[in-house]
């Protein structure tokens, strides 16, 4: 197995590393390649998942957590600088053989560190019965790619909040529940992220290469496909979001029909008093991204109290976001 070094040690966006996998599979000789990487806090969801069902978009945006769709299937995962991401590219095309063989290599190395590790289920690695790594598989041309997480000292509370619907009771229960089912390497042995990476690189790979600047240009070109909003949000069906809250103007309940996070229709119910035509007000938000900044931009152009008596713009935004 050949270890792949990037020419720069700068931490890139997750999309860059996904594009690296694809670039190696498309342009490098038919060998087995492996590399490790880290990102700032990021949510990664599967090819066929509906983003709104998997990601707490309000939380991740408020906390500068990035989110990306990958081209492999599987579930939603969270990564931060204390999580090491593993990428394996091979010319072997048999999914079960690739998955099992590669993950058994990883399990063997974890055992050599003194950890009670096993490969379990479709794609998990467990330590003492608790999940430490989740992995996904997909094919690029005639190659196979396996990529996954390895939790060294990941922030579990942030992870749960990022991938749990915005409901404090669910979040609180979720943190306790997830903590009972997952584990960090640091919970079992005293090892740094740097030492872990060095150990895996030395014991899993027999040689190494460094990508050229030309390679990086090719990777950037592929990365653009991961940054395309149509890919990130996917070919989602329309879906409905409901928000409700008490304001100085009265109770307001907003129902929004969205597609790819763009407002297709909005309806307001409640015991508030209208000043102007409600349809005219709601039409202002059609075609607008369902984000606080986009709605704020619309409200900056009008006086909301010209439409709804005694309603403040910040109250309206607080209900929605």
* CATH first level of the largest domain: Alpha Beta
Q: Could you name the CATH homologous superfamily of the largest domain?
A: Bira Bifunctional Protein, Domain 2
Number of strands: 14
* CATH domain topology of the largest domain: BirA Bifunctional Protein, domain 2
- Percent in helix: 25-40%
* DSSP summary: helix tally: 12
**Biggest pleated sheet:** 8 strands, mixed
Going by CATH, the architecture of the largest domain would be 2-Layer Sandwich
Mean pLDDT: 88
Bulk shape: elongated
The low-confidence runs, each spanning 5 or more residues with pLDDT under 50, are: none
What is Rg?
23 Å
| Tally of domains | 2
Main structural class? alpha+beta
Strand coverage percent: 25-35%
The neighbouring-strand order within the major sheet is 7-8-9-10-6-2-1-11
């Amino acid at each position: 197995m050949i270890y792949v070094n990037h020419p720069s040690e700068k931490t890139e966006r997750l999309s860059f590393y996904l594009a690296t996998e694809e670039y190696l599979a498309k342009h490098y000789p038919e060998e087995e390649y492996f590399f490790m990487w880290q990102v700032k806090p990021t949510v990664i969801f599967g090819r066929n998942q509906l983003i709104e069902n998997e990601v707490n978009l309000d939380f991740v945006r408020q906390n500068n957590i990035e989110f990306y769709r990958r081209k492999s299937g599987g579930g939603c995962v969270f990564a931060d600088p204390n999580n090491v991401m593993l990428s394996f590219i091979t010319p072997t095309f048999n999914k079960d053989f690739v998955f099992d063989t590669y993950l058994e290599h990883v399990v063997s190395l974890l055992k050599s560190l003194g950890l009670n590790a096993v490969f379990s289920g479709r794609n998990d690695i467990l330590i003492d019965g608790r999940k430490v790594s989740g992995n996904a598989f997909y094919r690029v041309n005639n190659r196979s790619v396996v990529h996954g997480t390895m939790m060294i000292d990941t922030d579990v509370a942030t992870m749960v909040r990022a991938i749990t619907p915005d409901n404090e009771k669910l979040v609180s229960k979720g943190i306790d529940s997830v903590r009972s089912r997952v584990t960090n390497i640091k919970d079992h042995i005293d090892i740094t992220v740097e030492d872990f990476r060095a150990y895996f690189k030395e014991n899993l790979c027999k040689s190494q290469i460094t990508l050229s600047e030309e390679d990086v240009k090719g990777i950037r070109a592929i990365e653009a496909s991961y940054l395309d909003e149509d890919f990130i949000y996917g070919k989602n069906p329309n879906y409905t979001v409901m928000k409700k809250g008490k304001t100085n103007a009265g109770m307001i309940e907003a129902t929004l029909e969205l597609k790819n996070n763009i407002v297709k229709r909005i309806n307001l119910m409640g015991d508030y008093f209208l000043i102007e035509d409600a349809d005219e007000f709601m039409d202002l938000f059609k075609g607008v991204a369902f984000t606080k900044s986009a709605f704020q931009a619309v409200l900056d152009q009008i006086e909301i109290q010209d439409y709804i008596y005694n309603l403040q713009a910040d109250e309206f935004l607080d209900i929605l976001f």
